[in-house]
Amino acid sequence: MLAEPARTPYDVKFRFLGFPVRIHPFFWLTSLLTYRAGGGDLRPAFIWAGVVFVSILIHETGHALAARACRERPWIVLHGMGGLCVHEGRFLTISERLLIAFCGPGAGFILAAIVFLFGYIAIGVRPLDVLALYDIGPGDFDSAAASIQRLPYIGRFIFVQMIWVNLCWGLVNLLPIWPLDGGQMSEALFERSGASAPMRSTHILSIATAALMAIVGFVRKDEFLLIFFLIFAAYNFYLLRMTGGYRGYRTERDPADWWKSK
């Protein structure tokens, strides 16, 4: 899940804030498929794909900015499993690894805060009321629902989904489940604590956390949540059984890397 996917002739390449960005074609397919349309209407799926694109790009840019601050040379890849900030160079300290891992969700939280601020200024909806729409806050659901009705359909859809992806997905990403950002932070903290086998401890914690979240999905009758975390539990169990555990990934230079050059 942390390996950079192979290049294809259909990759889209550009630079964003000075960082090389490559979009694998499976990114678009997965983005469309992850939208659960109601009533068979697939038109919002394309808006959803745009929301996912912007959100994951900002998330990975957060990682990249932190990596640049740590004197790394990062690039960004959006692929079928989400996004990846790849960097090569010296070995990072534990503090640098923690910083880079957190800055991805942190960038998403900043984007969500901007959307919250827009909602408050433009239509007068309070952030706590917006959280009630996702059943994760004590706010007034009816007040939030009435306020966002002032926006046109597309604006309403983007507003709700931008907060969902950047806030809720960001919180999920901080769970101590490898290879999510929270899992990478857990591994760094286990290493800092002096654990004899930090990677093994990380996988055990990941299995326990993913299993607990899968139970939550089962109780809530949320099939997506259930399957999503069962996959992570199985993945970490597989890595735990491997001799030597997970050893990371390597990057290699290639003449086709012209898009990474300044």
Mean pLDDT: 85
- The separation of the N and C termini measures 28 Å
User: Quaternary state, please?
Assistant: single chain
Stretches where pLDDT is under 50 for at least 5 consecutive residues are: 245-256
Largest sheet, spatial ordering of strands: 1-2-3-4
User: Would you report the number of β strands?
Assistant: 4
Overall 3D form = globular
The tally of domains stands at 2
What this model shows, in words?
- It is built from nine helices and four strands.
- It is 59% helix and 9% strand.
- The protein folds into two domains: 1-174, no CATH class; 176-262, no CATH class.
- The two termini are 28 Å apart.
- With 262 residues, the protein is α+β, with helices and mostly antiparallel strands.
- The chain is globular and about 55 Å long.
- It has helices spanning 25-33, 43-69, 94-123, 127-132, 141-148, 153-173, 181-192, 198-219, 223-241; strands at residues 12-16, 19-23, 73-79, 82-88.
- The relative contact order is 0.10.
- It has a four-stranded mixed beta sheet.
- Helix 2 (43-69) crosses helix 3, helix 7 (181-192) packs antiparallel against helix 8 and helix 8 (198-219) packs antiparallel against helix 9.
